[in-house]
Amino acid sequence: MRRLWLLALSCLLLSCGESPDSGRTTIVVIPKGTTHEFWKSIHAGARRAATDLDVDIIWKGPLKEDDREAQIAVVENFISRGVSGIVLAPLDDAALRVPVLNATRSGIPVIIIDSGLQSDDYISFVATDNHQGGRMAGQEMARRLEGRGRIVMLRYQEGSASTMKREQGFLDAIAESPDIVVVSDNQHGGATTESAYAASENLLAPLQTQDGTLTIDGIFCPNESTTFGMLRALQDRQLNGQVRFIGFDSSEKLVEGLTAGDLDALVLQNPMAMGDIGVRTMVAHLQGKPVERRIDTGVVLVTRDNMNESTVAELLRPPIDD
Prior knowledge:
Layout (H helix, E strand, L loop, with lengths): L1 H13 L11 E5 L6 H17 L2 E4 L8 H14 L3 E4 L8 H9 L4 E4 L10 E4 L2 H15 L4 E7 L5 H14 L5 E9 L4 H12 L13 E3 L3 H13 L7 E5 L3 H9 L4 E4 L2 H16 L7 E3 L3 E3 L7 H7 L6
Parallel strand pairs: 1-2, 1-3, 3-4, 4-5, 5-11, 6-7, 6-8, 8-9, 9-10
Antiparallel strand pairs: 10-12
Helix pairs in contact: 2-10, 3-4, 5-6, 7-8
């Protein structure tokens, strides 16, 4: 009975059949969270690479993207289990420094994906140029407003290097249009669509007049959860389509919003490529091959004008269930 209990516990922790003790190359891929479509796309890309290269991957991360302690515990757990390598999307650019250092000291190489780390203890950084993505959003906003208007930005959360760079890139681009006024840029949506919805409601309430119109002309949100939370808030207040609205990342509901005209544009990363390249880069390193220190996975501005182009359509609806 005790052996059966231990076996069940082992399967729970290691996704059954993916044990680091099997003698095979085993790479653990640790996302910031596991609920958003973005992370499901990264998982699909990592699985694709693992199949092609005949290695094992373990997919394990916190449920919510603000659970630093849970992500640290996952990293430390797999250090003790002696995996071949770790592919990590750090949800906090400072809090994950020590766990990554501990992995390196234990002889386990780390590749960082998606979001940066305040450390040099990694083999490669595979991610979007997030500042450029934010700049693209800011430039598109300025173009649609013809260089004049009042806007707000709903931030994501402190410590998330990727979204902080997007936010700064957006503000840098907007600063080039002196007649665009940023009314608010200090509110945070948080890690879930529910918290982002609540923050969006709080942000919009004082900006809506008694006759139901908004006193702003544009809105930017820097990730999937903040974009969806804001979209819901605008729709619930029947304000959708009244302002220029640019978001980041994709999901079924965001594609519907773009199609309906409730969103003007989405800045898209390539999360499947990020997961795929992260695993392939780790395998190359384990085989003693040279790898690039920084790999840019690209960023694209999507509007209703180009959303049906084949390459763009795949980014909007990645084949995560294949």
